[in-house]
Amino acid sequence: MSHQEFDSEGTLNNTRSQLASGLTESLSTFDSEKVVQEYFQQSVVKGVDDHLVEFSEALRTVAKALRRVAEGKASAKAEAAEWKRKYELERTRNLQQEHKKLPSPEGYYDCRGKKTENLTDQCSLESLANDKSEKCCGRDGICSHEVLRDGETDSDSKMIHSRMRRKASFRLSWGCNGSGQHKHDIVSFERGNITTAVRSSKQISLRWESQPQVVLILTKPNSTTVRILCAEMVRWLKDQKKINIIVEPRVRSELLTESSYFNFVQTWEDDKEISLLHTKIDLVVTLGGDGTVLWAASMFKGPVPPVVPFSLGSLGFMTPFHSENYREYLDAILRGPISITLRHRLQCFVIRDGAKDELETEEPILVLNEVTIDRGISSYLTNLECYCDSSFVTCVQGDGLIISTTSGSTAYSLAAGGSMVHPQVPGILFTPICPHSLSFRPLILPEHVTLRVQVPFNSRGHAWASFDGKDRKQLAAGDALVCSMAPWPVPTACQVDSTTDFLRSIHEGLHWNLRKPQLFDGPRES
């Protein structure tokens, strides 16, 4: 081998060794980068896994919340459907009760005391828009004999009429000037235009068609002043007006203790006679305050005779007559005509959770002022679900709820922040008691609605219902209270008219908007 070949081979070997060393270095460098890349990839994956775990936990929490919301919504829909069904049953029950209360055809009498032969004749008497009705009562008012006798069987009716004279009849007229107007002529539709012809809350006038003969006198107990005035009034009505007097058993005993002269005074013996009082009493006189008027209204579960309330109490929102001039007032009222205020009442039913259906209720309770649902002695908030017809109203969380008539707007409802409303405004007041909310304002609902207040099953405590401040009833979970406007108002006599008497009562009783007048010698506009 020559020297040249040796050099070439050496060079080749060197080159091979350099390439081998360079390849080794490249491989080592490549492995290092791969290790580093794998390390970083593992760290990122681990971090991503942690975030995915947290994210999945959050999604799981959201899913649970959405599931609860969906379940609650489905439950609310089912409950609303159930309440709608129950309200339909309630309406059916009311219609059935009204139908059952219609007496047999033998018990119908027209305004002249003549017995009608069939139901069609009586229906014509009840409809003021009917021509036959116009012959009886005219087009200007309502006849007192449109009110049928409630709760009487045929035998009871015949027995009463066999031993008693007929009640004094009267007619109601709408209109301040006494001319009156047909009560149904409210809206006209001439040429497609809706026009209001007369307001339903116009002043109502009562005109006697026959002289009143029987007067019921109710008095406030434990008052010497009232006892003396009662004895004096009874003596005057008997001697001067030849009026038959009926009083409570307690009052009759007090009168007989004073003198045997009062032997002619009548009274009742049991609850059955009380239930028939409206069939023979022409006029009710109350001596006391608003509480005595409430007591008088509670005695009549159906129609109520006209009430003349004399003021011998504290405030007297419903007692416009002063006792000092009782002779002049009673003389004018017995002659007539007089202005009256029709004070609407609420009819309340308690439906227990164990009831088989909506028709299984307790005895109805009539209230003139308000029904109150409160928490009683419980330290927990009252939890009440409220419905108006088939619509959900709200859930009351606070001390309670007041459902009031407009006559009761100046009582408990006023103290709880409700508005003062004229008693002839047709409406139902919905007033919360100390609600745990800044946005819960009182409502005034139309008179034709039916309100339902129920204690939910998740309530922490029971609720208590009171009716005109008495007859408290406990409402457990699942129990409900149903309130609607009763068909029998309480007609109270006015001293002037309903508006004048109402404004005078809030001025004198509450000193409404009483303020020291601004001085006239202050700064003036130039």
UniProtKB/TrEMBL annotation:
<keyword id="KW-0520">NAD</keyword>
<dbReference type="GO" id="GO:0019674">
    <property type="term" value="P:NAD+ metabolic process"/>
</dbReference>
<dbReference type="GO" id="GO:0005524">
    <property type="term" value="F:ATP binding"/>
</dbReference>
<keyword id="KW-0067">ATP-binding</keyword>
<dbReference type="Pfam" id="PF01513">
    <property type="entry name" value="NAD_kinase"/>
</dbReference>
<dbReference type="InterPro" id="IPR017437">
    <property type="entry name" value="ATP-NAD_kinase_PpnK-typ_C"/>
</dbReference>
<dbReference type="InterPro" id="IPR002504">
    <property type="entry name" value="NADK"/>
</dbReference>
<dbReference type="GO" id="GO:0006741">
    <property type="term" value="P:NADP+ biosynthetic process"/>
</dbReference>
<dbReference type="GO" id="GO:0003951">
    <property type="term" value="F:NAD+ kinase activity"/>
</dbReference>
<keyword id="KW-0418">Kinase</keyword>
<dbReference type="Pfam" id="PF20143">
    <property type="entry name" value="NAD_kinase_C"/>
</dbReference>
<keyword id="KW-0808">Transferase</keyword>
<keyword id="KW-0521">NADP</keyword>
<dbReference type="InterPro" id="IPR016064">
    <property type="entry name" value="NAD/diacylglycerol_kinase_sf"/>
</dbReference>
<protein>
    <recommendedName>
        <fullName>NAD(+) kinase</fullName>
        <ecNumber>2.7.1.23</ecNumber>
    </recommendedName>
</protein>
<dbReference type="InterPro" id="IPR017438">
    <property type="entry name" value="ATP-NAD_kinase_N"/>
</dbReference>
<keyword id="KW-0547">Nucleotide-binding</keyword>
<comment type="similarity">
    <text>Belongs to the NAD kinase family.</text>
</comment>
